[in-house]
Amino acid sequence: MPLPPVNEKLEVISFPKLFGNPNPVEIEIGCGKGKFLVERAREYPNINFIGIDYVGKFMRRSEAKVEKCELLNIRFLKVEARKFMEEAIAPGSISVVHVYFPDPWPKRRHHRRRTLTEDFFRLIHSRLGTGGLLEIATDDADYFTVIKKGMAATAELWDNIRETQNERILGGMMKTHYELKFEAEGRTLYYAELVKR
């Protein structure tokens, strides 16, 4: 999917035109190597998937997996998350947003780069359809505290907010690359799920 230069406004995506069907759409923000999303696309051919990552150094590897598996229900994009969600995604058009192990930017001077802030929760909420899910995971306790503050500040927007440690909330999904890595290292993993009201 070609994108304009970074300083130009993105066009709103027509998912039926992009995928050739009206199936629900899930987005993974920070998809990295794409392992999780490719496996999910293989398992659920009647759902469409978009993986975005600002770094994009693994994007070709992800696209090669898609071509090898002949998957028609998945696309990968190198794009900044906020710009993409604000400009390219129509309100109420997404069924699930996955945000797993985003960079916690632990240094104070880098905190402004964090993805999961209060205003980003509001943006994601506006792009989800009614009953849509926001699924979150992190291994960083300090960042999870910030995430919980964002969830609390937007609590009126969600029908249900759940938190767990070391146990996925949305069952039946394969684990991400970092999830497996951090589990093997014995780290505590923090999960959250928000359901749009």
CATH class bucket: Alpha Beta
Pick out the low-confidence regions: none
Number of domains: 1
Could you give the count of β-strands?
A: 7
In what range is the share of β-strand residues?
15-25%
Descriptive account of the structure:
This protein has about 200 residues and is of the alpha/beta class. It has a single domain (about 25-195), classed as 3-Layer(aba) Sandwich (Rossmann fold), CATH 3.40.50. The chain has helices at about 15-20, 35-45, 60-70, 80-90, 120-125, 140-155, 175-185; strands at about 25-30, 50-55, 75-80, 95-100, 130-140, 160-165, 190-195. It has a 7-stranded mixed sheet with strand order 3-2-1-4-5-7-6, sandwiched between helices. The radius of gyration is 16 Å and the shape is globular. The relative contact order is 0.15.
Provide a compact summary of the structure.
By secondary structure, the chain is an alpha/beta fold.
Topology summary:
Elements (H helix, E strand, L loop, with lengths): L14 H5 L5 E5 L5 H9 L4 E6 L5 H11 L4 E5 L2 H8 L5 E7 L17 H10 E11 L2 H13 L4 E8 L11 H8 L5 E7 L1
Parallel strand pairs: 1-2, 1-4, 2-3, 4-5
Antiparallel strand pairs: 5-7, 6-7
Notable features of this structure?
197 residues; alpha/beta; Rossmann fold; 7 strands; 32% helix
